[in-house]
Amino acid sequence: MGAVDGEGESQRISVRRVALCWRYILRMKAAIHIRYGAPEVVRITEVDKPKARDNELLVKVHATTVNRTDCGYRAAKPFILRFFTGLIRPRVRVLGTEFAGEVEAVGSGVASFDVGDRVFGYLEGRFGAHAEYVTIPEDASVAIMPPNSTFEETAPSIEGSHYALANIRAAKIRRGHDVLVYGGTGAIGSAAVQLVKSLGADVTVVCSTENVALVERLGADRVIDYRAVDFTKDKQTYDVVFDAVGKSSFGRCRRLLRPKGIYLSTELGPFPQNPILALITPLFGGKKVLFPIPKHDQEMVKYIKRLIESGDFKPVIDRQYPLDQIVEAYRYVETGQKIGNVVISVA
Ligand SMILES: NC(=O)c1ccc[n+]([C@@H]2O[C@H](COP(=O)([O-])OP(=O)(O)OC[C@H]3O[C@@H](n4cnc5c(N)ncnc54)[C@H](OP(=O)(O)O)[C@@H]3O)[C@@H](O)[C@H]2O)c1
Fold it and tell me: Residues in the chain with pLDDT < 70?
């Protein structure tokens, strides 16, 4: 009897092992949301693991971020987003735009990446990085990670710098320019300060008292504490005013601009006037608003990689959460007080 019982038990164990293996091969953990709303609509569950198509990499995600784009898509704010993401329910259930991880498999047509490569990339529009695995076409916004950097250091390097770079390139910021960055401590602002400095321009940063030392470390030539003074009354004028937190307006910042100065903002504006001003103001040849539509590609990721390697750019990391605590991460990002980036450890 004892031997038969022992055999039955070992068969049950083998079946369990096979089931676990299949689960490992076919399923993965992900943070999903099936309706729009507050951070609590997000839950951790198991979903099907994606498969790499012929031109794609399957990446095991080690680190990702929760950023303002994820918050906007999760909550469907502004409402207009629903016309792109699903009117009643979100079409994309797994968010997450940035990732750093390891290539686990490659499609038959992939030539430039190999299994085991440490890569980082950007998935805006596709999303999916709040999961154990993502797929990405080999010619999309993905590149080999800078050497000697960790997954957690690298994952937050793209979203903020991508928005900063789009604005910097639109305004053609270069050596000799005087640039004011309003809100130099968010993901976009802290990247903007470093990227503007890397181009040789002079940068004045507006931030709160507690963050003065941080923005000086990032390269600020001059700092204005917005809690102590109204930065719009500054005596100096600028070639470019970049509002990286979207809390000012062209009207308020106009007098800070030189005769052909440029105003940039990461937000539409309360009315929402910035895209409209970007169409009208360039027609008059004086001070103008630009509102570029950011585009991302592999060149952009490689550019960021070079800046990390040269030491010109290092993403600022505020807090780090495990994937299981992603709801907490969302709550924190939505305070509007994060410094730089909030990283999620996945592996
Ligand atoms: N255009 C797009 O498609 C797009 C995409 C992503 C994000 N965004 C927008 O871009 C903005 C920035 O996002 P983010 O993730 O970089 O950062 P964020 O989370 O919005 O910014 C947080 C930082 O902003 C600072 N801040 C808050 N109020 C401020 C004020 N009145 N003046 C100066 N600094 C202030 C805070 O520091 P203190 O403690 O110093 O206040 C904190 O460090 C957001 O409005 C976001 O919605 C736009």
Answer: 1-5
Residue 98's contacts (CB-CB under 8 Å, 6 or more residues apart) are 64, 65, 67, 120, 121, 122, 123, 129, 155, 156, 157, 158, 159
206 C-alpha to center of ligand 1: Å?
Answer: 12
Amino acid at site 108: S
State both tokens at 325.
């605590």
**Contacts for 270-277: CB closer than 8 Å, 24+ residues apart:** 273/249, 274/250, 277/250
Residue to substitute in 245, 290, 296 for testing ligand 1 pocket (most ligand atoms within 8 angstroms of CB): 245
Sign of the four-CA dihedral 208, 211, 216, 218 = negative
Residue 12: predicted pLDDT: 77
Which residues, including other chains, have CB under 8 Å from residue 324's CB and lie 6 or more apart? 44
Q: Which residues pair with 240 in a beta bridge?
A: 179, 262
Residue 182: which residues within 8 A CB-CB, separation 6 or more?
189, 206, 226, 231, 241, 242, 243, 244, 245, 247, 248, 253
Bridge-partner residues for 290, per DSSP? 264
* Nearest protein CA to atom 22 of ligand 1, as residue: 186
- The Cβ-side half-sphere exposure at 123, using a 13 Å CA radius, reads 30
Please say whether the beta carbons of 183 and 243 come within 8 A: yes
